[in-house]
Amino acid sequence: MGVLDIVPAGVLTGDNVRKLFDYAKQNNFAIPVCNCTSSSTVNAVLEAARDIKSPIIIQVSQGGSAYFAGKGLANDKQQASITGAIAAALHVRTVAKEYGVPVVMHSDHCAHKLLPWFDGMLKADEEYFKAHGEPLFSSHMLDLSEEPKEQNIATCVEYFKRMAPLGLWLEMEIGITGGEEDGVDNTGVDNSKLYTQPEDIWDVYDALSKVGPNFSIAAAFGNVHGVYKPGNVRLHPELLGKHQAYASQKLGGKEKPLYLVFHGGSGSTKEEIRTAVTNGVVKMNVDTDTQFAYLQGIRDFVLKKKDYLMTQVGNPEGADKPNKKFYDPRVWVREGEKTLVERVKVACADLGNVNRL
Ligand SMILES: [Zn+2]
Questions:
Q1: How much distance in Å is there from the Cα of 252 to the middle of ligand 1?
Q2: Which of 203, 208, 276, 357 is packed most tightly, with the most Cβ within 10 A?
């Protein structure tokens, strides 16, 4: 039995998202989430998932969403981020079925000051729900981890009460992911905040499970966004096992009750990833590595074909030779897509997410 026996191809919503994550947890694998900023990167991620027969998660960050709509648009009220996120979701909805893979369409970190972005996406979900009986997105992340725990949880509960009836998944963060991503700089944060305690996780579970079952927790276990020299980051994915055990004991022995999310996963060792997956991580973010992968193909093409790219006409083969087939963006952007496809396949393989359909 594979994933397609449980959920359909295309964008998943409602209980189908949980069914996918349950299947991953039961079969000891996790699904990578790739940050996408354009239709080009979305298509490459879907291509990789199709080639290796894997479900996949696509996410847009607040900055990535604005980029999707166009950097030339004003974003002082999050209008470009809202429009771009909607455009990305509609694009994914339109093409995902053609690739034949189940997709979770997700939005990434939303801190308190970015809540207008979240509100805009939620409004689009509600409108889509009225017309189609399901939300536009599969899932959204709220990251109020900078705030006191009680406030973080209370705000998540409020939003989740609006999201659950639509069939939206909520990902929340408690504890802080270090490093810098998308303009949020946590490089100087207090070390204890980088490791969430089991009691805190339980408080989150207890509060959100009263609203609905479809939520996940990004717990901090030393995670840092970005890629650094080995040894600079101390990941402790074994802590996630303690969170599961604590929650399990509270729930009378229910096995691995938590859906956990791994942020700041770029640069992790295979061993760390394995431990995290064994402990109930169902989703892992790999943004930094896929950014580099997208560049590689384009960079190598430009360096190799430099003499064909300096003028529209004239190259080493002759002064009157046209260069259109080298500077056409479908040629050089495609080279970046190819290297991105390969990197997404590696991310899937690292998480055991291959041949799962
Ligand atoms: Zn993150």
A1: 31
A2: 276
Distance between CA atoms of residues 193 and 148, nearest Å = 11
Structure tokens belonging to residue 243: 């969170």
- Residue listed under structure tokens 């989740």: 160
Residue 357, both tokens: 């359909």
Sheet strand arrangement including 224-225: 184-186, 178-181, 224-225
Residues with catalytic annotation? 108
Q: How many CB atoms lie within 10 A of CB 286?
A: 25
pLDDT tens by residue, 289-324 = 899 999 999 999 999 999 999 999 999 999 999 999
Residue segments in the chain with a per-residue pLDDT below the cut of 50: none
What is the DSSP secondary structure assignment for residue 315, as one 8-state letter?
Answer: E
Q: What sign does the dihedral 301-303-307-312 (CA atoms) show?
A: positive
Domain ranges of the chain: 3-351
User: For strand 215-219 and strand 184-186, is the pairing parallel, antiparallel, or unpaired?
Assistant: unpaired
How many whole angstroms from 266 Cα to the centroid of ligand 1? 10
Q: Which residues contact 276 (CB under 8 A, 6 or more apart)?
A: 30, 221, 237, 240, 260, 262, 284
CA distances from 157 to 93, 161, 174 (A): 28, 6, 14
Instruction: Please tell me the distance between residue 78's alpha carbon and the centre of ligand 1 in angstroms.
Output: 19
Structure letter (DSSP) for residue 221: B
Instruction: Identify the CATH number of the domain defined by range 3-351.
Output: 3.20.20.70
pLDDT per position as a tens digit, 202-233: 999 999 999 999 999 999 888 877 666 555 56
The Cβ of residue 259 has, within 10 Å, a number of other Cβ atoms equal to 23
Rounded distance between C-alpha atoms, residue 175 and residue 145, angstroms: 6
**Rounded to 5 degrees, what angle do the CA atoms 18, 290, 178 make?**
75
The amino acid occupying position 92 is V
Find the 302 Cα to ligand 1 centroid distance in Å.
31
H-helix or E-strand containing 139?
Answer: strand 139-142
Q: How far apart are CA 172 and CA 108, in angstroms?
A: 10
For residue 177, the CA-to-ligand 1 centroid distance in Å is 7
DSSP type of residue 291: H
Reduced DSSP (H G I as helix, E B as strand, rest coil) percent helix, strand, coil of the chain, to 5: 50, 15, 30
